[in-house]
# Entry
Amino acid sequence: MQDTLGAIPQLPPMHSIVSNARMRWTPLVVFFLPHLLTAGPDFEKEVAPILETHCLSCHDEALAKGEVRLDRREHLLKVIQQGISEDHTLLSQITGSPPAMPKKGAPLKAAAVQTLRDWIEAGAEWPEGRVLKDNPARDLDWWSLRPIHSTSALTTVDAFIDQSLQAKGLTPMNAADPATLLRRLTYDLTGLPPTVAELEAFSLDDYEATADRLLASPAFGEKWAQYWLDLARYGETHGYDKDKPRTNAWPYRDYVIRAFQEDKPYDRFVQEQVAGDVLFPGETEGILGLGFLAAGPWDLIGHTEVGEDKVDGRIAKHLDRDEMIAAVCNVFVSTTAQCAQCHHHKFDPVKMEDYYRLHAVFAAVDRADRVYQGLSPEQDALRNDLTAQVTARKTERDRIDSDTKRDVLAKASAIDRRLTELKEKHGSPLLPQYGWHSAISKKQDDPKWVQIDLGAPKGVEQMKIIPAYDDFNQIGAGFGFPLRYRVEGSNDPEFQKDVRLLKDAAAEDQENPRNREVLVDVGGVSMQYFRITATKLAPRKDDYIFALGELETLGGEGHSNIAQGAAVTALDSIEAPPRWGRANLTDGAFHREANDPKVLTEMRDLEDQRAAIEAEIKTPEVIAKLAKLAEEIGALEKQLSAFPRGDLVYAAATNFTTQGRFHATAGQARPIHLLNRGDIGNPGDLMHPGMMPLWKGASSEFALPENAPEGLARAELARAMSSADNPLLWRSIANRLWQWTFGKPIVGTPNDFGRMGLPPSHPELLEFLAAKLRDDPKHSIKSIVRLLVTSQAYRRSSQHDETMASLDADNALLWRANRRRLTAEELRDTLLAVSGKLRLEERGGASFQDFVIEKPQHSPHYQYHLHDPEDPASHRRSIYRMVVRSQPQPFLTSLDCADPSLSVAMRDESTTALQALTQWNNRLVEALSQDFAARLAAESDQPEAQIKLACQIALGRPPSAEEQQLLSEHMQSFGSASFARVVLNMSALAYLD
# Structure
């Protein structure tokens, strides 16, 4: 007999073992009576699965509801020994009518109850050391998880819609008038207004041919790509606090536009965005599609400045993968897998193991610029190999540096403590200014210079060069001081003539002066300009800099500093006040050590001791190894520099140039552990690549060869998700296509088809569309869109009917068309088109900027108010606009533009006073009003004719009699530009019937 829990003295009869009375409302599981000889159910095969499936979701280590834990033997013993009440036995809790437990899910089946009864009566065996884990059964009995079966006899969209209407006693509206219908169709398929010529030529007989023409238009791809970019959380800056631009994000945007325009098969579209580089090697589109994984926000500081050797850096990496996983699961299969980060999904059959297996799929992937064309496959392979070699050597270099630093800190800890004590007491910086800092350079021998202007020639006896001091990352004194440099004076600001060499320190490397000022004898010569030129820059990790704390020139009466407040110029400069800036170099504020000579002597002695320890630990062998690595890195980077640059896209990548502490994996997957409670400091089992098995044929863990390249896991995921057997994929996109055509989705939560989402309003129709798209050999998006826009349901009038509204106020059953407001991008494009300024022919390529960037070298400020609205470069379609995360475009944001940091499945459609004020007062609207007035004047010099033409162009119809009169009066009173502005602000322009 297996080991049981042992004897418990003074236990009551078998079925009276209970919890403490104060826990009477918690689920009770009673385990153990000893010394019974009856053979019971097998614990591992029969009992443990019941407890793990039905009990541990509330009573494991993580939750322990009611202070009851059922995962370990000792905790259950403690529960039993706390006290006994005969009211709540295990069996009474699970067999009551209705049963009190389990609280979640269906009651236990009779066979499971009998198994527990037999187990208790046989002695409640529990193997020593056995720990139970929450392991809920996968309940796949949910509408979105069942296989797609379109068995209905109905074969058209209208048949499904009409069936629903008839069942509710609803009478559908008649078809919209031709002008309204053409305007609706043109906007829905292209995002642009129909031209006057198109309106005049249109007839209902040409409807299907018109739909085909619009589907084939380049504007279709531009319009429909915006829906996908909303989902893909597309932006062209990183987000977070250092919202740096992504200059190579736009090729992914153009890829999406092409995909919709060329009607790329949907399964191929999905595959390219998860593993295109693996599934379609050598194909440009396969790499461009990976922009999807990288499209979301990215923490530059967490990756490049903190790095994975620190906890915060590992958290940043974890959150980065989580963002990718959420995007893949929400967008492609409408599943909230990210909810399983800290515990099994509370509502859907997604386990923590599934979530962390997805982490393992993306364990080697980062976001970076990568070449998508311009290199041959052989060149690309060689380039990646060289990049991987550089990464390996830099990793080894950093390891040696880290080990050396650790050993120095261990031996110098007492010295550091005493230095800190002295600095805090005597020598803390007096002011927060740090000094001047050059731009960062990739080459150590790039010359950098900085100079001061005394305003006029002045007699100078001595010059003081005071090193910079920066406490960041324990750098300390001497930060950025050049290894080689020269000091010169002149009366020529360009230093082309009459140059006097004052100090030559350029022949060999100089010792870093750290806290000591460098004195330069000038000899009383009268000069106006003094320049320091660094000829060998100070090294950082992978780049080089030049920095100084203060420059002083001493002369005149009292030997005072005559350089204070002097103008400073430099070859280049990082302006990031208060820490860094040209003005800091002559402001008289810099790090000062103690004034007490004894203290200063002690501090310098301590620093000398610390330097000796560094020299002891950084042995000649270590120095030689670092030098060899530096030489190898230099040689490899020289080979890399010989390659053509190629065209770049910001996408998922495993090989890229190191940025600070951000290193490429070269395809070597990071180890992924299940994180208990989602805590990176509490790792559990090592995870292997896999996914959530939510449909037939889906594997929870991929069968991959040992040491398989990282891309194979992504390829497996892409194939599984795009499978014809995956009902979620086809239902999800069918629902989105309906939403993008009719304005409202069939399932009101497009990114969540789980139990917390909404059920479909027309389930049979959704099945029909999903099956049609899945079974189409081309998996054609356009074929479904055409099917929808040619239906009678789509063509209905949006006219209101009180009787029908009383039966279906929300128009859920589509007895009429839904009136909608133009999206933010549609409105902006319309204003440009109506005014005659839209540059339709300029498609693709780098994005235009409708802002001015200030201080791009640090944390950029995107200033929209400084942009010239008349700049023709910005008169392109809105989809080609550079999308900023931290400072979104004010005009478009007020009109409910999507947040680029989120996967936006449905945009809000609000109505606020701010929208009206913004649309009237916006500088672009003001400028385009004048352009529109000029366009009308060029067509006719008659005010009445201008009013009619304006309404035809902007509203798609002639003005009503009342509109004609009001607009005429306004034009007479306020002029043609103001009249044009009124037309551009009319509701009839902003809304689509």
